[in-house]
């Protein structure tokens, strides 16, 4: 089984800790993972903003980078959904086989590896925000919650209005800043009301938006990607600490 | 569409104002959450909802593929049943037809059944310009009309108003339109409904002409269908001597068997009822029963152009249930008026720009009035993939719209960088080196400011993932 990590451009540039966590987690579970360096961005920002022609070179690049891998694992429901739902609309023969091989991290863990208890340890109160593309486009269901429930020491508290969008929406966040901020404010208020220490999600772009809102408010709540929680163990080292 | 919407600012500007209105936000949050929860329960009762939804989608698609055939069939059937069919290519033409019909009867007033098509063409304003008063009889439309306001929701046009505001509108305005509000009117729902009943009754009894839309037009028999909750529509459809129905050409369904599917999909999706309280169906005219003169105005007004668009045409499946509005987080916060059209919310964002074109500022901004969260698609009873159409329309705006030059240049530059990994790696390293100099807020106007007005910018890490991977590879090599 040849497994590649599709780290995504956002994680590559801004949240490398999430990518490192995926590698650590998968290796702990006995999966050897590759990082094909030809990968950059799936083209979702271009596609969703209406620039189809600009999407094409990136879709071609992504398809070529992951040719020959049985599984392409990504810690982003949104980028996985882009490949699943939108690549087929681009009409690229070279990208035809990719959607079927792309797995969002929790899908890969639960469906392919068949694990929900990944042997993680995380002694914190956590609430989970399911990002829209994972929830509605990929239909991840309760996979992330099942993984979180199996984490030792973790106290999972339910997020009110969890299924409502956080207001990020890619370029929406800057094209419609007032509505975007109003949605973030409501999401953050709901998250703070849970009393959790950590707001967990499986898409760092949404967490960037929510985390930025929380930091601006100096709120006592941090955002952490699910992969980083699942990678944490009792033996987490100084270099790869408990997040 | 309605002249009163012209000159609306672009969606982001309108929404920047409306999101600050705490009363509006509270009214909308309360109303939309109540109805969305009820809808979810009503839909969950049916084990075959997914199949019904699929059937609804397929019936509409099949009909739209042969729309010309079914429209001619409907015209023949309506004519055979004693009705008169008029064809209107654009709003002004439809308004002209209705005004002429009313004047030919020597009338100066009409009662109206709640209708989206007549909102779309601005019929009330057009009639007023000809000296004809149109009285809205749907309770929510009445509130909007008395308040000299604009509708903000498809099903509940006054959803932005609470009971206290409605009482004030009734007290202040009813006397100008007819029977005044009762003395000492309170904001109790029963009292408000009674005040509306008394106010409207004299209009029902007096009116000689009614104007309606229709939810469906059954081609095989030429039958029109209006579903409603209050019964006020039924009064208009049965009491006056003349009935004029303005109906979009996409409202046609081939047979009664097809209609059955929609009579299950619509009430559960819109009012969360198993069946709506009043379903009125009429076919031409019937001697001694109801209006003796019936006119059907078939309205195009941009629909044929929409039908020509392979991706966009799915918007014509819409049965105006409002479910997409009620789940939309953007609609909930921005309110209906920000959409600058009687069709607000997700369906408005894809329908209005197709019917009116992308030339005005507000219409070109509508395809961006969504996070593409997909909640609308999930609830839509005819499975309109609204996010797909939004992206499709964004492509048209980006291609032809003005003001997208800078964006296109930025996107092109980013794409070039992302398509050249060596340059990309260099850019990431440069960003990492200057990380300590990067602020959390940006004062300069533009996208970065739009972000950092309410959100801190993320801190650049010391090392990108790809650089970490490289060093790790070296460490691991023996
Ligand atoms: S788009 Fe779908 S959900 Fe929205 S009003 Fe139309 S039928 Fe209802």
From TrEMBL, chain A:
Chain ranges of the Cysteine-rich domain: 3-83, 126-210
Which InterPro entries does this one have? Answer: Cys_rich_dom
What the entry lists under PANTHER family is as follows:
LACTATE UTILIZATION PROTEIN A (PTHR30296:SF0), UNCHARACTERIZED PROTEIN YKGE (PTHR30296)
By what name is this protein known? L-lactate dehydrogenase complex protein LldE
From TrEMBL, chain B:
Report domain Lactate utilization protein B C-terminal positions: 401-474
Q: Where is this region: Disordered?
A: 436-478
* Residue stretches spanning the membrane: none
Annotated LUD domain residues: 73-287
The UniProt entry, under Gene3D superfamilies, shows: Alpha-helical ferredoxin (1.10.1060.10), NagB/RpiA/CoA transferase-like (3.40.50.10420)
Question: Which InterPro entries does UniProt cross-reference here?
Answer: 4Fe4S_Fe-S-bd, 4Fe4S_Fe_S_CS, FTHF_cligase-like_sf, Helical_ferredxn, LUD_dom, LutB/LldF, LutB_C, NagB/RpiA_transferase-like
Where on the tree of life does the source sit, at the highest rank?
Answer: Bacteria
**Pfam families from the UniProt entry:** Fer4_8, LUD_dom, LutB_C
Keyword entries, A-Z: 4Fe-4S, Electron transport, Iron, Iron-sulfur, Metal-binding, Repeat, Transport
UniProt domain 4Fe-4S ferredoxin-type: residue ranges: 315-384
Name the chain's protein. Answer: L-lactate dehydrogenase complex protein LldF
* Originating organism: Kitasatospora paracochleata
